[in-house]
Amino acid sequence: MTFKELSNSGLLWTLVIIGIILVAVITMYYYFICRKHALKCGLSKETVNAVVKSSLTFSIVPSLAICTGLASLAVVIGLPYGWFRLSVLGSVTYELMAANLALSALGVDVNTAGADAFVLMAWAMCIGITCTMFTNLCLCKPMHMGSVKLGARDQRWGALSQSTFMMALLCALTVPMIFGGMVSLLTFATSIVIALVVNALTKATGAKWLSEFSLAFSLIGAMVSSVLWDSLFA
Q: What is the mean pLDDT of residues 155-160?
């Protein structure tokens, strides 16, 4: 069985659909439990409904960008597994990086890889990001509480610790884009320009809904521009 045959097989589609339905059922279960508890604590239905509407907005709008990322991810790892990764636990940047590392380790690409390469790629994606999830469960609360206590003693050190975490995250995400070649750099710059334009339009027009689509516009525009940059500089 080839890489592409396995990545789009009926068995994989079935397993993915079962997994996504299971996650959806668990999500709805906790939604009703939390809603019931909120009403029991004295919150009004109007307040709860307002929170639900706000949450839906901030969930659905970013998913437009995720759907765009799925189109690029599906080319590499197939539609079902890409759908599963982005629906349950994963991100476009991480998934593509993990997939490329796994294929590079075997010295193959999507066109020449076999089923074993797909299995290795799937495990590389799954193990890496799942380990970080369990690490977060153990370390995030102590780190957060330590930062809070530090800020309570001296607000300057609290602000510095938060800024350090954000800077480290920013560097981890942007450095590969900046030093990944001319095409990568120009694509990254294009996304920044689009985000700045959307932000300026939001302030000029007062249309706050535009800011909610900033991520989607930036990702879509950057992906479209990457085709142009690739034709010019690749």
A: 76
